[in-house]
Design a protein that fits this description.
heterodimer, A: about 270 residues, mainly alpha, B: alpha+beta, Tick-borne Encephalitis virus Glycoprotein, domain 1, 3 domains, four-stranded antiparallel sheet, 9 helices, 18 strands
Chain lengths: ~270, ~400
């Protein structure tokens, strides 16, 4: 079974990223550092993507059904996104935090693998399934990068007592596409629900939480656009919005009616 | 601007207060009074009013406020407040007491929720008019985002008054021309469904371990596996190997008995169990409501079982009779593949089988949703706006 080699994939992934990180933080040769810090994690991301593809082929259904499978995608997208952002911005802290976040999610998968079945209930056998979940996962990963950037900004704020405007601008540059992808994922889900059940919106607990996440990020965008002086409020709102997002993804089962959701992951 | 700040706090507070008083006096918001043509007239009137106010009072406070960031934040926050109530309180209108009386247990049916939707519509509508000029790329996509959402909120909320969803249960070889709504009321429909055949397919069952309390074992070392021939799995000192699998079979006095037309799906599997001291083959069978499962007890909290299998496909071969057509139309309805029939869309919802009856009952849902096409227009506008939003910060990103 491909899942059995997740531990080896994990070790290779973490080792390559770790070497990249060590070079980034401790090597003085700038050109060499940049090359190694880009190439090694790039290979690591490719290896993780290959693992997902091989696993997909083996189980004969899209690996988007269980929580463990979504964590796998999430780890891949977070590491890919911070890698792309590093190419653009050369942000070292984000590089490190993104690597840690991906590692944690992969580690959770190793500890709680959940059982892997080929079964896919008829409602999920739809061409809308893959775009709906994958777009959500990309959006969650982009918004995670935005949250990590905000945390770096907050750390800088605590250190110098001045707001790191550059950092917040980078965070908002991520929030815009993240929010847009959240919108697309939600609307595709609505159209799919209409085709499958006849209702595009049914106030299912997961839908309600997803709407709440969407509204909070909408609030961030409007606060940023209309009140450019409210940077500190924006910083807190960005962090809080990500907490709402994480509850939507991982925590709704702990709220009233959470387990009655049709979106509870199969396990 | 100080004035706007006051408005942005006072308006939601007053709307909530008024909504709650209305809730206590009149009960839930009467959405069913907004059936066509009332809903369409109201939406149309709202657009005209917004346009007129915008044209004639462009420089006045009302237009400036409603199209400002203050109104945007205030209306979004007021709506968020209702969604938070929804995730904190169980949404079941049978709750009484104070929270039930002010509608917190069915927030979408409250006056306050209706007011918050209206507040969003006013803010979104006014800002959409304001951004009609100047006509440039940024404003066009801004318009798609905001007016698209306006259409979705307006037609999804007021349009639901005309929506009807009926559940139609049709036994095999039977004809049904009525359905029940979610409140259990009967409705006669203008077509009849004859179910010729209900088709159902299953995945293979799964081999699993239960503890003595009936809890499924899901640990790193062992998890349920699909019962596929020659699959092997180890747990503690045991090695389990899946051998043969028989469909619609049970074990009776140590013999395998095949039975046609069982009321439920039944599987019988043979598993080779081996450890240092034993190696033998055992029968396991899934549980149904008419016979217990065949389990192999291997020790304390170690019971090897077959889990009931999940459906991999279900669909109905049907004939539809209408007054217009002399011959019935033949169709297949499956999950995710509904049938469009005039103003109705018919969905494969679920199925059941009554005990003692060999025939299945297919459960369809027929939906009449006259405003769906306009909602789709709003959704497409929002999608276009969202695609633009993905790349809107690209230039800034490169800086």
């Amino acid at each position: 079974m491909i899942w059995q080699i997740l531990n080896i994939t994990f070790i290779i992934f973490v080792s390559l990223w770790l070497v990249g990180t060590i070079f980034l933080f401790f090597n003085k040769n700038k050109i060499k550092t940049t090359k190694i810090s880009l190439i090694l994690p790039g290979i690591a991301n490719l290896i993780l993507l290959t693992f997902i593809i091989l696993y997909w082929i083996e189980i004969e259904r899209p690996p988007l059904k269980t929580m463990a499978e979504t964590r796998l995608w999430y780890a891949m997208f977070v590491s890919l996104i911070v890698w792309v952002i590093f190419i653009r911005t050369k942000s070292k802290p984000l590089y490190l935090l993104g690597f840690i976040m991906s590692t944690v999610f992969l580690l959770v998968d190793l500890i709680h693998p959940e059982y892997q079945t080929k079964n896919l209930m008829p409602a999920l056998q739809s061409p809308w399934f893959i775009p709906h979940v994958v777009i959500y996962m990309i959006s969650y990963a982009v918004l995670a990068a935005a949250c990590l950037t905000t945390l770096i900004g907050y750390y800088n704020y605590l250190k110098s007592n001045t707001i790191d405007h550059e950092n917040l601008r980078l965070a908002m540059n991520l929030v815009y596409p993240g929010f847009a992808l959240l919108t697309i994922g939600m609307l595709l889900g609505a159209v799919w629900a209409k085709i499958a059940w006849g209702d595009y919106w049914s106030w299912d607990p997961k839908e309600t939480w997803a709407l709440l996440t969407w509204l909070f990020y909408m609030l961030c965008i409007h606060l940023d656009y209309s009140f450019p002086n409210k940077r500190k409020t924006l910083m807190f709102l960005l962090a809080f919005s990500f907490i709402v997002l994480i509850i939507t993804w991982l925590g709704i089962r702990y709220f009233p009616n959470g387990m009655s959701s049709i979106h509870v992951y199969g396990n | 601007m100080e004035k706007f700040k006051t408005y942005s706090i006072a308006i939601p507070l007053l709307l909530f207060l008024d909504g709650t008083i209305m809730q206590l006096i009149f009960g839930k918001f009467p959405i069913n009074s907004f059936r066509f043509p009332v809903n369409f007239t109201l939406i149309f009137a709202l657009l005209i009013i917004l346009a007129l106010v915008f044209i004639f009072y462009k420089t006045k406070t009302i237009v400036k406020f409603l199209s400002s960031g203050y109104a945007a934040l205030s209306s979004i926050l007021f709506f968020i407040f209702h969604v938070i109530i929804m995730v904190i309180f169980s949404q079941n209108d049978h709750y009484s007491g104070f929270w039930g009386a002010i509608g917190f247990h069915k927030i979408t049916e409250t006056w306050s929720y209706a007011y918050s939707s209206l507040y969003l519509l006013l803010s979104l509508g006014m800002v959409s008019f304001r951004r009609l000029t100047p006509f440039n790329t940024r404003n066009i996509f801004f318009y798609f985002n905001h007016f698209g959402l306006w259409i979705v909120i307006a037609f999804a909320s007021l349009g639901q008054a005309d929506k009807l969803k009926l559940f139609i249960s049709v036994p095999e070889n039977d004809i049904v021309w009525f359905g029940t709504d979610s409140d259990g009321n009967f409705h006669e429909i203008d077509f009849a469904i004859k179910l010729n055949k209900f088709n159902l397919a299953f995945y293979s069952p799964q081999l699993a371990i239960l503890d003595d309390n009936g809890e499924l074992l899901k640990v790193k070392e062992f998890h349920p596996v699909d019962f596929v021939k020659d699959t092997e799995i180890k747990y503690k000192n045991f090695n389990f190997k899946c051998l043969d699998l028989y469909e619609d079979a049970i074990i009776f006095k140590d013999s395998v008995v095949f039975i046609d037309d069982l009321p439920e799906k039944t599987w019988l599997g043979t598993v080779e169990i081996s450890n240092k001291s034993r190696k033998d083959t055992v029968y396991l069978s899934t549980a149904t409501s008419f016979h217990p499962p065949k389990i192999e007890k291997l020790g304390k909290n170690l019971n090897l079982i077959l889990l009931p299998s999940e459906a991999s496909y279900f669909g109905s071969k049907i004939e539809i009779y209408t007054e217009k057509d002399s011959k019935p139309g033949k169709f297949i309805i499956e999950v995710n593949k509904p049938l469009k029939l005039g103003n109705w869309t018919i969905y494969q919802n679920s199925y059941k089988k009554n005990p003692g009856n060999v025939n299945y009952i297919s459960i369809f849902s027929a939906v009449y949703d006259p405003w769906i096409k306009i909602v789709y227009v709003g959704i497409v506008m929002m999608l276009i706006g969202a695609i633009y939003l993905i790349f809107s910060r690209k230039k800034e990103f490169k800086k």
